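Ticket closed. Logging final result for Cadherin 11, type 2, OB-cadherin (osteoblast).
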Amino acid sequence: MWEGLGLQVFLMCLGAMLCSVVAASVPLEHSHRHRLSLHRHRERTGKEGQVLHRSKRGWVWNQFFVIEEYTGPDPVLVGRLHSDVDAGDGNCKYILSGEGAGTIFVIDDKTGNIHATKTLDREEQAQYTLTAQAVDRDTNKPLEPPSEFIVKVQDINDNPPEFLHGPYYARVPEMSNVGTSVMQVTATDADDPTYGNSARLVYSILQGQPYFSVEPQTGIIRTALPNMDREARQEYDVVIQAKDMGGHMGGLSGTTEVKITLTDVNDNPPKFPQSVYAMSVSEDKVSGEEVGRLKAKDPDLGENGLVSYRFIEGDGMTVFEITTDTDTREGVIKLRKPVDFETKRAYTLRVEASNTHLDPRFIAWGPYKDTATVKVMVEDADEPPAFMATSYSFEVEENSPDGSVVGRVHAKDTDVANNPVRYMIPRYTDVEQFFSVGPEDGIIKTTRPLDRETLPWHNISVSATEIGGHHQDTKVRVNIKVKDVNDNAPEFATQNEILVCENVSPGKLIETVSAVDKDEMVHRQYFHFSIAPEAVNNQNFSLKDNRDSTASIYVTRRGFSRMTQDVYFLPIEINDNGIPPMSSTNTLTIRVCSCDSKDTILSCNVEPYILPAGLSTGALIAILACIVILLAIVVLFVALRRQKKEPLIVFEEEDIRENIITYDDEGGGEEDTEAFDIATLQNPDGANGFLPRKDIKPELQYPMRPGGRPVANSVDVDDFIKTRINDADNDPTAPPYDSIQIYGYEGRGSIAGSLSSLESVTTDSDLDYDYLQSWGPRFKKLADLYGTKDFADDNS
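Final structure:
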């Protein structure tokens, strides 16, 4: 990129020297040339006749030039300023101001020479505007008006071209023609495009040939090789160079990388990897199941590589079908209908694969399709037996005897082995077991007489199982119709009573009766009606057969009375004229009713005449009301009794100190000998004339009763109670269990004294109850109530 750099540096130095010489001479000549021409005098007369004089400028210049990037040892002489008022005696002083004055540009205040002290870069600033002025050295008064001048930086080729947007990415279709535009790249050069060839760029390709080329002036990249195939190579790395100086030697250059990708077109037909495919299918497969797959390869991408499959010929086109799996692009062969190994064992199919989207530009390259042969072998499977018919229908007469033949079903093993078949009826299809089937011959028979009126149709299944093999079975539907036999006599269609007025006229039609028969009626068959022989001579009613399975009933006399007879029974015989004929006698009930003059029935009830003293409806209602009131009173009384028994206040925890028990009967004490046997209740200690006090602690210990446990030094009252209970249980003279025993003493040798609070009401309660603490858990409540209270009183 930097070729010819040495030569370029040499030319730059030479140019800088020439420019310095020219710049040093031009201002002097320019100042001298215009020195006299710029002295101009102009007189102008004012209103008062004064003459005005315009002062002349003694030095004028236009612009200076300085070359950029000068790297010499001395400052570059830009130019020289000189004024006519400068007599050369040193009184004239030159001053420089403006852009870069004092830093980049300096002036000799005596000679007016301007030098550049720093290296200038045109790309940073192309020109500088400065102001010069000549002043008196001593007084600093301007000798001439200030004047502006421009210093332009002379451009050199010091900036290489640059691609600002690289690297670049481009796409072009494969198989494009030569010269197809790929993209355009553009480089920029910071040098002055108006000066020389520093910014004149030329493009060239350094890498990517012979596939691509670039236009030198525009930078447009084009294809240079025909029939570039994406399937062979998809990506290319191209390097483009931009060189200034018109591409000549010594110019600077820059490069960029362009990655070009070939896009896909449909230029490849699908192709089967093999010409023949072998597949197999079992004969027990059902319709819709997959047989096999095959795939034609197409290296194109996207929709250009889409392939569709179809059968074009073969003997299995009606047995098989082929579809396309859009995910895998495979052809899927499926069963259209089941196959049979015993019927046909092999099929041959011709499959065509073709592209679904064609590119018109490449149709001539076709055809875009391929074919392959598919051979499908049918595999033998152990199939269940097959019935000769999909279903069977038989008929059998009702009431046929047991073992009557209904029909025969037949199945056979379709496999090559042709194993024998065994028949059976699944019990769930014939729950009541009306039929049986021969296990070897398939003959269906009845097991009992059938009744058509109960069940006219029987729908059962017969199963055929292969003997040997895998014991597979198959079922067939058998519909059995029970044929009708005339075994039911006709009867009245309805059993309603016929109502007749007492004053009915003779010969009046009172009813038309009809009949029904559970058996089937054949064509032109009707019922025949007649009065039963035992009632043919009745004088009340007559019958007329209408010969349309109905009969009319007429009244033959007048003067019916409910008091005499309110109900008449007329037996009628009905014959169905079937084969064999069946008949039955049915009784027609005729009730006599009371009617008005218009034959409107008023009443058919005879109770008012039989029970005239019966209770009326009002009386019954009154009796029921009284019963309800009595029940309400009883319920109220019971509720009040229950309410009185319940306490007014229910305590959550019983408090012994607040329970007051009231006895209505004080008793006669020991002197009352009429209520109890004092001998059984008498205290043994009282017999000795000594009764211990109940309100004080006893000081003496008494001898233990014979047979009793010692309690002198014991505080276990529970043992004492159990001993007394044992004595009472073993004493035959003791009172019964439900009697009341009164103990007038606290127990012999008891240290507790009286536990009753009734006798201590008038005392000062100065007893010591601390001994209750040692009586055990049964007396813990008393110990807490009395012992704790006394202890609290002592502390207070």
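The two ends are 122 Å apart (CA to CA). No further action required.
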